[in-house]
Description:
It is built from 13 helices and 21 strands. The strands form four sheets. An eight-stranded mixed β-sheet has the order 6-7-8-9-10-11-13-12, sandwiched between helices. It is of the alpha+beta class. The chain has helices at residues 34-41, 62-72, 77-86, 88-93, 134-147, 156-160, 206-212, 214-222, 237-247, 300-311, 318-330, 371-387, 399-404; strands spanning 2-7, 13-19, 30-32, 48-50, 55-57, 119-120, 127-131, 168-175, 178-187, 191-199, 227-233, 250-255, 258-264, 284-287, 290-295, 334-340, 343-354, 357-362, 392-398, 414-419, 426-432. Helix 2 (62-72) packs across helix 3 (77-86) and helix 10 (300-311) packs antiparallel against helix 11. 30% of the residues lie in helices and 30% in strands. It has three domains: 2-93, no CATH class; 119-269, Gcn5-related N-acetyltransferase (GNAT) (Aminopeptidase, 3-Layer(aba) Sandwich), CATH 3.40.630; 284-432, Aminopeptidase (3-Layer(aba) Sandwich). A hairpin with a 2-residue loop joins strand 8 and strand 9.
Amino acid sequence: MRYYFLPDNNGKIIQCGIVDNETALPAEAIETTAETVSNISVSHGLVRWHDKKRQFSFPKNDDRIWKTLMSEGGYTGSSAVTEVKDLQTVKNAFPLDTPASVDLTEGNFFKWSSTFPEYSFPEVAGLIVRSFDLEKDFDNVLQAAIDAGIYTKKEWSLLAERLESPRGMQFLHIWNNIPIQLELYQMNELTANAFRTIHFSKARPYWFWRELMKPVFSWMIERGIEKIISNISTERSDWVEALKRNFNPKVVPVNENTWGAIYPLDLAIFKGWPDRKTLGKNWNIEQDNILVREMSENEIPRVKQFIDLSWKDNPRKALPLEMLEQQYFLDKATILGYFLNGKMTGISTLRYRKDGTVNLTAYAPQPSIPHEVLFKFRDITYEWARLVGYSKLTSFIEKKLLDRNPGIYDHPGYKVVTHTQYRTTMYELEKDLK
């Protein structure tokens, strides 16, 4: 018996077959082995033939294979991941990678029909929520998750297998093309099961995550959904308390490792974005050779330039530059500038966190100025916070940074709370402003 395959002009295999030894092969067919024909037949059309090299190739990146399978339709994210794993033997049988010039995707990615319309938040320009679009969003969302330390590149399937379930709805919140939140739901007749929520930054206050959900709640209510249910690890008691405060769910034990939360779809829980606190564009406090004042939106480029120069070539520089704009626009933070002898030496943001509490974030490495000057800057910051109505101030700092410089916060009135749910252990410093 003789085995063969027939490639088209682009190298795609359009036919495989077997003939007896007395029968001529079809025109342009290439004779091969039974094993090769078997591998081609289960390759989902991913294998390519390169006539000049007389060699096969197959895509080596599993996420690329997964997206191509999804483009065929008929797969869920999970079943496509399973298929990718089953294709490892086939992939190894064709040692070359498919060149980038070969377009693996024939047609559009499989998309769920969704009745959820794109919604633009009037409170924040550029902030929208819409249905997750596999073709447009997967690479962007995966990279954001990698950058945030949620997944590694090798763990792409942990995201992929959760997408595109038969009754699934995926809601993606984006701000100026930056993924903010992805929520995955199983939709039943009266219940929405929230089985995965990804926050691409842990720097948002809890009220922010609540307000993001108003258009999603409204959409569910219109379609007769009565409640949302989810499971939460018993290790995240801080998250449970925040959910109770912001969403008013009923929380019940499921087992020793899990709590179940039941959320009534009540639009009354939404309070809207807080106003940005300000003492006016002309507010400032000047003492001797130091000055503290509010910075305007028009001064953000100057502030970013200061941050950029302050961090020099430090690879951590990208984070404060990103956080500044997100806190200012998304969280309605106020920017305070600190000046010594007319020169900017520091920047901080202050934003509403909860119940009379303001969160302080500093954006530049510790400047080489006397500690007594730093303490004056902080005292003026506390005075600003008191004047706009706050009674408590909190600030986060990595444990290793505070341990390295313990004198920085050698200031009366601080309470230190340790948090371990972040990528690195964080200290939260609390200051009573009363």
